[in-house]
Design brief:
Layout (H helix, E strand, L loop, with lengths): L20 H10 L14 E2 L11 H7 L10 H14 L7 H8 L3 H9 L20 E4 L2 H23 L8 E4 L4 H9 L3 E4 L26 H10 L4 E7 L12 H13 L4 E4 L3 H11 L8 H10 L3 E5 L10 E5 L4 H5 L3 H12 L10 H13 L3 H20 L12 E5 H4 L11 H13 L1 E2 L1 E3 L11 H4 L5 E5 L7 H16 L7 E5 L11 E4 L1
Helix pairs in contact: 1-17, 2-14, 3-4, 3-14, 4-14, 6-7, 6-13, 10-11, 15-19, 17-19
The chain binds ligand F0G.
């Protein structure tokens, strides 16, 4: 048999506290049964998020000491700009920045030969200093990029429509294959209406024997439905935002064919296409593994092709930046977005400085910027991705083998339990929030933290019936990068199996406080009933 050799080894370890179910129950009461408020130090396996939770590589740790904390134009700023050109734009000299920063050969030559060169048409532009036509914005994390983008876009659209004396108020709809919760909330808070067109069939059965051999790219945008909507509502949409991979649709990938079709549609309708690119490298892996014509292409090359179709992107560096903090907003120099919303770059810069910090760090420390510089390169390496996607896949397969249904095929960063199937025969209603009850039992009895991604998280009780029908009933186990071993996974599979066998006794859950707050899962109070 073909054996996959190991790809990494541990460098630093942390001992876990040993706690009892009684202690955890007491704390759960204290935090009103909100798992987000439960202290991480008392958790044995934490699957709450893959965001900012990565263990950094030795190269990233080395890069920290190269961080420069100057207030104006720190060294890491140039390295991050250059790395983003390398990773996201075609025809660049990849990993030059990362390598030269760590080995320390960079300083003079690197700065003079690369960073001062004007560079047009890409995601990092407007001249080397981003003064005249800024198009690249550093922020503390992904949602800050979303806030910056949507709040500024709202103002620019309002001004443009006021000048034209249009009465309908300008294009105010954002279309997506699936909005992450903060993305949707930030867009809505800025006054945009959201339209989600995910390819149908997310929870359809996928034969077990095809897992790892085929993939149906369930994260795709439904291009046909999008086009029909655009025909019916001309001049209403200001952006198509593709989330890659699609976190709303259970971490499912988006195919290159779908990206291309979306870009073609967007161009035909003169609507900018943006990516929410948090997990771009994981997505590229799926394209390489499963899409015809990509098996012989390298991951960096696939990433560059993906981004060649986009007019701009937001990214949280806490996922595929392999970093603990950081985010970016960028749009193509002189591209459709820049043309349509003329002058938006300078407006974004003003707001960035006002809210996050000087434009050359935007709320990130110089150290974190250096960690991201290396992270963005490390994350596109094949051994890393094989190990990463492989761990998530084997977690899903172990659950299936023990009789627990998971959404299939598994996505990139998380395994999703199918809670309708889990509670089969238990007569639970979406408003019972039984899947939240499951996460509470799992945390109390086993010290394992996972998050409901179903009727509670997606606010089933506040939606009209046609939208209620679209909400899947899932629990997400997000797998942190480079953190967990097979021992964690086996323990977790065993715990879920035990809970499955006593599913009839798992309590339902009532919301006791904060039902109507935006993003209530972070701060609502609950009670098992
Ligand atoms: N977009 C997507 C697709 C995300 O998954 C996230 C965060 C964000 C934007 C926001 O980025 O956290 O840096 O502000 N997702 C995390 C998760 C929190 O657990 O899925 P952020």
């Amino acid at each position: 048999p073909l054996l996959d050799p190991p790809t990494h080894q541990a460098l630093v370890v942390r001992s876990l506290l040993s706690t009892t179910a009684e202690e955890r129950e007491k704390i759960l009461q204290d935090v009103e049964y909100n798992i987000f408020a439960f202290p991480a130090a008392l958790v044995t396996c934490d699957y709450l998020s893959d965001s900012g939770t990565s263990a950094m590589t030795d190269l990233q740790w080395s890069a920290l000491i190269r961080g420069d904390e100057s207030y104006g134009r720190n060294w890491g700023y140039y390295c991050l700009l250059e790395t983003c050109r390398d990773v996201f734009e075609r025809g660049n000299d990849r990993q030059y920045a990362a390598h030269s920063v760590v080995v320390g050969t960079a300083d003079g030559d690197f700065y003079r030969s690369k960073l001062l060169k004007p560079h047009e048409g890409g995601f990092v532009n407007g001249g080397p200093h981003q003064l005249e036509r800024p198009n690249f914005f550093i922020v503390p994390q992904g949602r800050c990029a979303e806030f910056l983008l949507f709040s500024t876009l709202r103002d620019v659209i309002a001004e443009q429509t006021a000048q034209k004396e249009e009465r309908h108020g300008g294009p105010r709809v954002i279309i997506s294959n699936g909005f992450f919760d903060t993305t949707g909330a930030n867009a809505a808070a800025a006054g945009f209406a959201l339209e989600t067109f995910t390819q149908p069939g997310l929870t359809d059965a996928f034969p077990e024997e095809r897992v790892g051999k085929q993939n149906s790219f369930k994260g795709n945008l439904d291009v046909v439905a999008t086009e029909a909507w655009l025909d019916e509502h001309p001049a209403k949409a200001c952006m198509i935002l593709m989330t890659i991979t699609n976190n709303w649709a259970a971490a499912q990938p988006v195919s290159m064919g779908n990206i291309r079709a979306a870009a073609e549609l967007a161009r035909r309708k003169s609507i900018p296409l943006f990516f929410d690119a948090c997990r771009f490298a994981e997505n590229a892996w799926f394209i390489r593994e499963f899409e015809a014509g990509y098996a012989d292409r390298t991951i960096p090359d696939i990433v560059q092709e993906m981004f060649s179709y986009a007019d701009g992107f937001t990214i949280s560096l806490k996922k595929d930046g392999l970093s603990n903090m950081g985010g970016i907003l960028s749009f193509r120099d002189q591209g459709l977005f820049a043309q349509r919303y003329e002058g938006i770059g300078l407006r974004l810069k003003e707001r960035q400085i006002l809210f996050y910090g000087n434009d050359s760090y935007g709320g990130m420390s110089g150290r974190d910027m250096m960690a991201s510089v290396i992270g963005l390169c490390e994350v596109t390496k094949e051994p890393y991705l094989r190990n990463r996607i492989g761990q998530v896949r084997s977690f899903a397969q172990k659950l299936q083998a023990s009789g627990v249904s998971v959404l299939s095929p598994p996505g990139g960063h998380a395994v999703y339990l199918d809670m309708d199937d889990f509670f089969h025969g238990c007569d639970r209603h979406p408003g019972d929030f039984a899947a939240v009850g499951f996460t509470l039992e799992l945390l109390k009895d086993y010290g394992i933290r996972a998050a409901e991604a179903g009727p509670f998280g997606w606010e089933w009780d506040k939606k009209p019936p046609e939208q209620q029908a679209l909400i899947p009933n899932l629990v997400r186990f997000a797998v942190p990068r480079h953190v967990l071993s097979d021992t964690h996974i086996s323990y977790t599979v065993g715990a879920i199996k035990e809970l499955h066998s006593r599913r009839h006794s798992i309590p339902n859950v009532k919301i006791t406080r904060g039902k109507d707050m935006r993003l209530r899962h972070f701060s609502a109070g609950m009670k098992p009933v």
